[in-house]
Specification:
It contains 13 helices and 16 strands. With 411 residues, it is an alpha+beta fold. It folds into 4 domains: 132 residues, Roll (Ubiquitin-like (UB roll)), CATH 3.10.20; 56 residues; 153 residues, Cathepsin D, subunit A, domain 1, CATH 2.40.70; 40 residues, Helicase, Ruva Protein, domain 3 (Orthogonal Bundle), CATH 1.10.8. A hairpin with a 3-residue loop joins strand 9 and strand 10. Helix 4 packs across helix 5. InterPro entries: DDI1_N, Peptidase_aspartic_DDI1-type, Peptidase_aspartic_dom_sf, UBA, UBA-like_sf, Ubiquitin-like_dom, Ubiquitin-like_domsf. It comes from Vicia faba (Broad bean).
């Protein structure tokens, strides 16, 4: 059932609990949400304080009922005294930064109660996994992060309340109200996407197929957004094709970044399915991308990317090869995608894997201002307490929209 808890500072918390849950376990959940220790909490229902050992159903709590949580200073003193007398192993209190005074005791308190762990898995699965682990530092890190997030949410609510009483003729106040309304629409849109389009938040695995290049098995990255078929220098050397490199076609490939073109291999056999096809390659000085099957060869061999059947059809359909599942793609290939994304966000020219890749003698990438703008957004969100990698992924997910990324991280 769902219950609502109002704290002394008028914070509203919605909890999903079992009707037979004890009041003490509810307090433990509130300790995680508010940072107020169990010893300091007083739970009131219909104006009467309830005991830790009582069950919610026994005291008459029903679905959508409201409980009040107050903070007892006397309880805080008694709790501190009890800890001092019984030893730090039983100390479940919380520091001012949100971390546990005794993380080991805090962890064991949750582990010993299967019902409490079940509630935690529903409300905060990430924290539940950390509790089941063996890294106490990670527990402290998550507790501090949740504390900062609660503070941020509380400040936002205070700002929203202040806007309700703002001068209607104050231009700055009206701008803030407009921003709050826009953010609310974004949040509602995000929640609708979570419900109706959850796969949109999952990582998309790129398209790879098995091929043979010059008799050597390869996993080719199929990219219709790349103008040319690309092979790295190290890969060409391993396949015995570097001796055919025509250096008259040197240049620079421009896409997300820029990479040096070492030359061109005009023709080499590739085997798709059981049929051989002639293929030409641009050779790039890019160790992070081995072999990319680009638009030039896709057009030449009349390829069809059939996502319904999850196959690549070659020669107008005479050969069909399945796209590889994630488990069949070596981890180093997935790391290439990660490298490409991180490089594009940090300003380091990544391997040319998509976009219009045009060959020219020289040229430079003009993304410096965009990179500095991206870094400033990353810095702002990191200051809110989020990890840098999570911030970068969120910004990339929402195409650099800072507000949407922040809403996603808080969600």
């Amino acid at each position: 059932m769902k219950i609502t808890v109002m704290t002394a500072d008028e914070q509203i918390l919605n909890l999903d609990v079992d009707p037979n849950e004890s009041v003490e376990n509810v307090k433990a959940l509130l300790e995680v949400e508010t940072g107020v220790s169990i010893q300091q909490q007083q739970i009131l229902f219909n104006g009467n304080e309830v005991n830790n050992s009582q069950k919610l159903s026994a005291i008459g709590v029903k679905d959508d009922d409201l409980l009040m949580m107050t903070v007892s200073r006397a309880g805080a003193g008694a709790g501190a005294g009890a800890v001092a007398s019984s030893g730090s192993a039983n100390d479940l209190s919380i520091n001012t930064d949100g971390s546990a005074v005794n993380p080991g005791a805090f962890q064991q308190h949750f582990r010993r109660d299967s019902n409490l762990m079940g509630r935690l898995f529903q409300s905060d699965p990430e924290f539940a996994q950390v509790i089941l682990g063996n890294d106490l530092n990670k527990i402290q890190e998550i507790l501090r992060l949740r504390h900062r997030q609660r503070d941020q949410l509380r400040r936002q609510k205070e700002e929203e309340m202040a806007l309700l009483y703002a001068d209607p003729f104050d231009v700055e106040a009206q701008k803030k109200i407009e921003a709050a309304i826009r953010q609310k629409g974004i949040d509602e849109n995000w929640e609708a996407a979570l419900e109706h389009n959850p796969e949109g938040f999952a990582r998309v695995v790129m398209l790879y197929v098995d091929m043979e290049v010059n008799g050597v098995p390869m996993k080719a990255f199929v990219d219709s957004g790349a103008q040319s078929t690309i092979i790295s220098k190290t890969c060409a050397e391993r396949l015995g094709l570097l001796r055919l490199l025509d250096q008259r076609y040197k240049g620079v490939a421009h896409g997300v970044g820029q990479t040096e073109i070492l030359g061109r291999i005009h023709v080499a056999p590739i085997k798709i399915g059981n049929i051989f096809y002639p293929c030409s390659f641009l050779v790039l000085d890019s160790p992070n991308m081995e072999f990319l099957f680009g638009l030039d060869m896709l057009r030449k061999h009349q390829c069809i990317i059939d996502l319904k059947e999850n196959v690549l059809r070659v020669g107008g359909g005479e050969v069909s090869v399945p796209f590889l599942q994630e488990k069949d793609i070596p981890s180093r290939y997935l790391d290439e995608e990660k490298y490409s994304k991180e490089a594009s966000s940090s300003g380091v020219p990544p391997p040319v894997t998509s976009g219009n890749n045009n060959s020219s003698q020289g040229g430079a990438s003009g993304g410096g201002s965009k990179d500095s703008e991206f870094e400033s957004k990353v810095a702002k969100l990191v200051e809110l307490g989020f990890e840098r990698q999570a911030v970068i992924q969120a910004l990339q997910l929402f195409n650099g929209n800072e507000e949407q990324a922040a809403g996603f991280l808080f969600g």
